[in-house]
Structures are given as structure tokens and as C-alpha cells.
Design goal:
The protein is of the alpha/beta class and about 280 residues long. Helices cover about 30% and strands about 25% of the residues. The structure holds hypoxanthine (HPA).
Length: about 280
């Protein structure tokens, strides 16, 4: 990944050949959540294979294309599918899409994922607004030489998930009568799900949900001076003393079941975060 800047220039040029819009908000759709963009007015759907340097998604249920268009009146670039660290990609590759959204001109990114519930008050199918995170992936996209034109060497993480935006989103959720949890996401590298002892540990260190994505993207987004909103769809209950076996297929099915509620929330939120 030497010379990220020139790689991004090439990727942007490939997109600009087919689409000339000015996206304001970038959105990343996670596991089981690919249909959230069903009502997006898509001008161009560009497979990642047609964007130079964009890594290919190999995870189940990830479409692997960039949707360019308008959603609820907001010019958007939507990553329909992401790549994960557990697929064998480097942290730089995992966060390339975020760098690209920034290079396309977005000011805010909305990240979505499927995650396991650790907080015993939360339930399978709930939506959690991410308030903060713990990075337990053992790696960071910022390790290595820092390109000062992209961001600071030591980015401040004290308001990584914009408190102002979260306040607005809580209000929208109340108006829409959508139950919205809020909490801390811990990121692990996976791909094995956690043992009971690991879930107990993750809860003890202060996490409300656990997932295998999003956190590296948020680190890169904050480094890029993007505003961040994150939603976790809680697909399984990771309560160590009552743990049930769960499969990837069940995780995807639960995310798909609750996707319409997250879609309704997102569509109510989008116009509000655009005009900030
Ligand atoms: N652990 C990690 N990632 C996950 C889980 C989990 O239990 N559920 C959905 N994504």
C-alpha cells in the first residue's frame, strides 16, 4: 500500500468516468444488511472489481459494489458490502473504502454491522447506536508511516462517534417510535465466534456488543476527519451463562429480519445529518 494518495486518485478517476455527483454522506452496509439501500435512487452501481485497488468482498452476503446516487434527497456513496480483517486483508485494505469515500468528498460516514449482544439488557434483533469502541483486533490501520496530507499521526478519539449526531439520532428514533439501544462496540479479529470465557471478559471490560468489523474503519474515518455514525444490529445474545450455539446463517437471517427497522431509522436520519 505504498502511496495511498496516488492509489486513491486512480480509484476516484475510475469512478468519475461513470459518475459525476458530489456525495455528502458515505454509507457502509454490513452483514445481512445489503438490502438497506433498496430505496436508494442509484445512478450507477459499480462492482468493486471495476475500481482500482478496491479489495474484493469474500464474506457471505456481501454484494461488493459501490452505489452512487441519491437517498432520501441526499447525494450518497454506498458501499454495499465491506471486507474484513479475517478475510486475510491488511488493515490498509480493510479501510481503503473509507479513504475512498473521503476522497469522493463525503463529510460523514454511516457504518452498519451485525454484532453479538453482550449487555444482558439487550436482545437479539435490537439496534444499537455505537457510542464508543474498544479495539481488540491487535492491529490498527494507522500503523506505519503517517501521510500528513491524509490525517494526524495521533488522531484524537475523544468524540469518535459524534455526540452531537447521536443526540439527533436518539431524537429521530423517539419520533419514529423505534427502540434504539446505545453502547460500546468491541472489535475482535475473528473469524471464530467467542468462547463463554471470552464473552465474560468482553462484558467485564465494558463492551455492550462484539463484532469483527467497523472499528478499523472508524479509526481511518476519524484520521480522515470524517464525522462518524455507527449502528450495530444485534444478531445473537452472547450471555456466557446462557449461551446457545449460533451459525453464520442464523446471524445473517436475524440481521435481514431487523433490516427494515434499521432502514426506516436510517432514512429518517439521513436528511438530518446531511444538512449539518
Ligand atoms: N462475535 C463476534 N462477531 C459477531 C458476533 C459475535 O458473537 N455476532 C455477530 N458478529
Amino acid at each position: 500500500m505504498e502511496n495511498l494518495r496516488s492509489m486513491l486518485d486512480e480509484s476516484v478517476a475510475a469512478i468519475r468516468r461513470v459518475w459525476n455527483g458530489s456525495p455528502r454522506v458515505g454509507i457502509v452496509l454490513g452483514t445481512g444488511l445489503q438490502s438497506l439501500a433498496d430505496r436508494c435512487q442509484v445512478d450507477v452501481a459499480l462492482p468493486y472489481t471495476e475500481i482500482p485497488y478496491m479489495p474484493r468482498s469474500t464474506a457471505p452476503s456481501h454484494r461488493g459494489r459501490l452505489l452512487l446516487g441519491t437517498w432520501c434527497g441526499v447525494p450518497v456513496a454506498v458501499m454495499q458490502g465491506r471486507v474484513h480483517y479475517y478475510e486475510g486483508y491488511s488493515m490498509q485494505q480493510v479501510t481503503y473504502g473509507i479513504r475512498l469515500l473521503k476522497a469522493l468528498g463525503v463529510h460523514t460516514v454511516v457504518l452498519t454491522n451485525a454484532a453479538g449482544a453482550l449487555n444482558p439488557l439487550f436482545r437479539r434483533g435490537d439496534i444499537m447506536l455505537i457510542a464508543d469502541h474498544i479495539n481488540l483486533m491487535g492491529d490498527s490501520p494507522l500503523i506505519g508511516p503517517n501521510d500528513d496530507t491524509l490525517g494526524d499521526r495521533f488522531p484524537d478519539m475523544s468524540d469518535a462517534y459524534s455526540a452531537a449526531l447521536r443526540q439527533q439520532i436518539r431524537t429521530v428514533a423517539l419520533e419514529q417510535r423505534i427502540l434504539l439501544r446505545e453502547g460500546v462496540l468491541v472489535a475482535v479479529h475473528g473469524p471464530a465466534l467467542e468462547t463463554r470465557a471470552e464473552y465474560r471478559f468482553l462484558r467485564a471490560i465494558g463492551a455492550d456488543a462484539v463484532g469483527m468489523s467497523t472499528v478499523p474503519e472508524v479509526i481511518a474515518a476519524v484520521h480522515s476527519k470524517l464525522r462518524v455514525v455507527g449502528f450495530s444490529l444485534l444478531t445473537d445474545e452472547c450471555f456466557p451463562d446462557a449461551l446457545q450455539p449460533v451459525s453464520a446463517a442464523e446471524i445473517i437471517a436475524t440481521a435481514q429480519e431487523s433490516a427494515p427497522t434499521l432502514q426506516r431509522l436510517l432514512e429518517a436520519v439521513l436528511p438530518k445529518i446531511e444538512c449539518q
